[in-house]
Amino acid sequence: MTWEIGPVIWLQSFPVPTPVLIAASAPGSPAFFLGVVVVLAWWREREFALRLSLVFTVTAVANDIAKLLLQAPRPYWVSGAVVPYELQDSFGLPSAHAQLALTLWTVLALRARRPAFTLAAAGAVLAVGLSRVALGVHYPVDVLGGWLLGLAVLAGFLGGGPALFRAARRLTPRGRLLAAAALSLGAVGAAAAVALAAGPWAPDPSWTGPVSDLAPVSIENTLVAAGFGLGLVAGHDLDRGCRSFRSARAGLAATLLGLAVIGLAWFGVPALLPPGSPGAGAALGLVAAGIGAWCMAGAPALFCRLRLYGSPGPEPSSPMGDHA
Description:
Blueprint: H1 5-12, H2 18-25, H3 30-42, H4 46-70, H5 75-78, H6 96-112, H7 115-134, H8 140-170, H9 173-198, H10 220-238, H11 248-272, H12 280-305
């Protein structure tokens, strides 16, 4: 892919501060995606949050499998002329940030149904794609591949999602949990099988970038997404809490408190593991499952106990019905 190095270097020639590029890239990150799901769940959008978590899980699994099958390098691995403003250990094609941005912001735009929001969402998707190239971590074709795979995930979600959620509503809580566990284990198993089939990997000797410590054969995103989705389903059926905040100030305080707990778990648990620990991915998956359960059951129970939520009440029905 040396012919694609030119556009990457050209984009990097513009004097855009690195923090601006990183900020432009953030709306396509898995952490941002999970944050949106969590906040929606706390602000009376629990069912929609569950739907978004399904999109996230399918997106992560599809991206991990595609990366492992294609094993495409990142620009800064291939050429020392590309400045890596961000270091990445996984393969490059398709771009997970580009794929996540397209799926997340399209579903949110369909939910909002407002032209101004749709334009802002399109701008976010474009900014994520351009910033990933400018940061030196993706070729343009990686971004395009992410967008195309994202469109495929969206088509499956919009076509099959409503029937899946109708079937889930007919199950008992235990049945839903077992089904979610089976789907999560199936996703992890499929990605793990592809990773094992990929076999050992070694960088091309002609590459001139920093590749000595790379370990790109990974299913970490799949573990995180599967764990988070399973935790959400478990927490959803455990929760018997309140539904609406007493005030905007109470909602802001609760959101900051809930996110602080998530940040402590997300960054604290991996910090306790030895560097390069082989169980780091599995640990993140378990942390993600805990975060999902905290999002749907633990945090709402705490918000009620602290009197940040008002009295219990039914969640409002989705204005989009079964379409998102």
